[in-house]
Amino acid sequence: MHILIEKRVQKFAKEYDFNEQPISEQFERYVAFVYLHKYLQGDPELIDKVVLGGGNDEGIDIAAVIINGQIVFEPSEIEELIGDQANNSARVIFIQAKTSEKYDAKLISKFLHGVETVTKSAMRYDVGKLAPRLKDIALLIDWVAQNGARFNEFQIPCEIFYVTTSQSDGSTALQDSQVKSSFKRIRDLDVYKEELKLQLNGADELSNKQQDQHGPQNIKFQFERRQTIPATEGVDQAHIGIVSGREILKLLQDDSGEIRSGIFEDNVRLDLGAKNPVNLRIAETLSTDNRNQFPFLNNGLTIIAKSLTNVGDTYFVSGYQVVNGGQTSHQLVRWASSDQVDKDPSLLDSLWVPVKIVTSTDPGVRSRVAVATNMQTAIGASDIQASAQKAKDVEEYFAESGTDGLRYERQARGSAHAIDYPKTRVVGTSELNRAVAATVFGESARAIGSPKELEQEGAFVWGDYPVELFYYAAWIIYKIDLYFKRTADCVVLKAAKYHIAMMVSAFVNPKLIEKFQNGDTEMQKKELEGKKVRSELEFDVKSMELGKAIEDAIPEAMSIATEYFNGVLLEGRSLRKDDVRSRTHQKELIIRVGRKLREELAETSLKPGGGGRQ
Prior knowledge:
Elements: H1 3-15, H2 23-35, H3 37-40, H4 44-50, E1 62-67, E2 70-72, H5 75-82, E3 90-97, H6 105-124, H7 132-146, E4 158-163, H8 171-174, H9 177-188, E5 198-201, H10 203-211, E6 219-222, E7 225-229, E8 237-244, H11 245-252, H12 277-287, H13 294-297, E9 301-305, E10 307-311, E11 314-318, E12 321-324, H14 326-336, H15 339-343, H16 347-350, E13 352-359, H17 363-372, H18 381-386, H19 389-399, E14 407-409, E15 426-428, H20 429-440, H21 444-449, H22 467-486, H23 497-508, H24 512-518, H25 521-528, H26 531-536, H27 544-564, H28 566-569, H29 577-580, H30 583-605
Parallel strand pairs: 3-4, 4-5, 9-13, 14-15
Antiparallel strand pairs: 1-2, 1-3, 6-11, 7-8, 8-13, 9-12, 10-11
Helix pairs in contact: 1-2, 6-7, 6-9, 12-14, 19-22, 20-22, 20-23, 22-23, 23-27, 23-30
């Protein structure tokens, strides 16, 4: 591995708590983090989900299906994203990640054969021989193919990357007869768009991809009609003017036609959909002769950039954000891909869009510009929960858990101000809500299927409970995630994580079982706010005994889940949300934990000095 890339991988692995894994697996996750950043947003759990995990992976290390700009893992998620929208996009991404500093034609061919196999299996609905996680991908591709009329494009856009740490361009490997033959077979399936190409990436491309996380770099566009605004303290330069539709698209879309990664991170209102009243008016203006009045009818875009250089009217912009005009941007992209523009591309040249560009490296100035241009940060229900005194107490308790403990990110800080701590050990309010619901109240079905209910004012997950209760809940989830990471065979159970957490909690605190079965959350809340029940339950995971009990209970809970969901697992795929969200599963699983504990008690009572769990 190239020494500089190795250093970056090590830093990434430490930050995301992947450093116990072999370097090859760390590299796979690093590549997923870099190449799919716009979809994963640095979420450790999502990074793990797109990495296929060795074994019979057909040479494919990473795979993702993207619908309307969001990554999906189940067909039901596609349905939710599409709804009744007429215009939808789909994209499939396959990646092979090798630490080698060379391009191996045999391995490239094997990888391409894997892509061909998955695609063929999806088209023939013959996925039985695929490994579970490849089967998941094939079933998603099959869903997109079957519902092709609901998508913008007849063939599916697809990107294929073979990533190494090589310092060469891979052109020799591209000419290898075996590689060319393998790639031709994928093309001949006629499933993916004509623009499909095999991209062999080395250290330079990998580095450039990571740079894109800081905003697009050196994007060239023409800005003839402009007026310079005098610079002030903290502002290096500023311009206001109009830019043609064709040139504005260069700022909004990458070479594949996708919205550029990260350019709307500071614009929370983003895209409210084609049927939003404001967007309908924008679309009407663009599609009629009124488009020549666009500069007067629309406020356009406000862009704040870290760097802006020019040679005459040709500008190069880097590290930029569209802080105002997110909906206008998305409507422009939709219109540019319409039949109207397809028939007459010159319409892009005759459309003029108002643009204000401000250049500053001062975070304070950047923030003030964003606020001043009507960027409103949405306040969610979980943000209100996090503002309560109890949440502040919980945050303080987590912070005192030492270097090997967890942290509670009470306030969403954004990527630039995130807690400097391994990401897998940082818990947000929404995640904490689900953890408490499952492990303390036995509401695992609600944690899986209705997490928004837990964010409502007065939700049972927050109360005058001991702060260690919240840490206990988060710790169980953390340990289960760690177990998934170390035990590849169990990854197919991930959708049942909160059921597993409920069972682990019941194993280590058997007195919770009756409360879980009663299902009276209000009664449980009152009891947990009283001293009597607190003394009956053990929540302090700093106790070595409880910590070990949690570790021991996880494999037992996994075993029960595997047996219970065996019918689905025999289909050779991972569990999905629809497979596990029912309260019936929650009730049956807790019954099985109780049965298991009674069996253990019966066995140990027959032994001299036997006792069983407390």
